[in-house]
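Response to reviewer comment R2.3. The reviewers asked that we include at least one raw input/output pair. We reproduce the pair for peptidylprolyl isomerase here without editing.
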Amino acid sequence: MKIMNKLIVPVTASALLLGACGSNATDSESNTLISSKAGDVKVKDVMNKIGDEQIASTSFSIALNKILEDKYKDKVDTKDIEDEIKKEQKQYGGKDQFESMLKQQGMTLNDYKEQKKLAAYQKQLLADKVKVSDKEIKDNTKKASHILIKVKSNSDDKEGLSDKKAKEKAEKIQKEVEKNPEKFGEIAKKESMDASSAKKNGSLGYVVKGQMVSKFEKALFKLKEGQVSDVVKTDYGYHIIKADKENDFDKQKSKLKAKLIEQKVQKDPEILTDAYKDLLKEYDVDYKDSDIKKAVENTILNPDKLKQQSSSDSSSSASSLSS
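Raw output as returned:
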């Protein structure tokens, strides 16, 4: 059951700044927030200072959070989120260090939990809107392991080898793996220069098309389960790639589906903006300020703006093997 029949987006500065102050909170641009002998500060003054776009973003975020929680709270397992956060805390050296890191970003642990919940609700929204078949998941994903022999990126690189030596070493390892394919993991652990995957016997988990550099990906998707590639060169060095058995596909399917949906949204942000619009219509959202409505439509509900933001985020957070 819905919490409310009509959700009114909080659009005035007073709603954002004084919403917790009780019944005296103002609701008009002409209302006074602070008075003095030097002059009054009105809601309109604060809105002009903050800017319609920032107010629109905050207002929309508050409204969207309420709607998504109302619609999907019964479909999201909060225990899974708690377990994920506990794992993250362990990776950062414990709860205290994790909370200290969050504090540096201006967040509390509860803020972070709420963000994780919101992300889960948004994934559920997109899962409802974007249809992805099991066949599409199978065609666009591959479970893989690899052994990487790095090539020096520059003269100061102490880890990599010269191109000639790296190639020779990779070719030698490839022949060894071909003779003893069952020892791939053991060899990867010993020889691979990709530290993060080496400790997992070379495992990269499931690779989604578009995730890796093209030469790596092209070689991987030609392989059948259990097969090992020839030596493959990329900008990072020389790889020996193995297509692993996908015996846990059913268990990983929902995560892989989410990744494919994420890729679809990155390519076509209109998928997300249309999903938002449908949701706003379903919940009878009513903007009470025309400037805020215009700002929301020109930014948050504008697929071109989202595409620009996505491109910026992708370029700044690309991983070492990502294309």
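The first helix runs from residue 13 to 17. Residues 1-26, 316-323 have pLDDT under 50 and may be disordered. Further pairs are available on request from the corresponding author.
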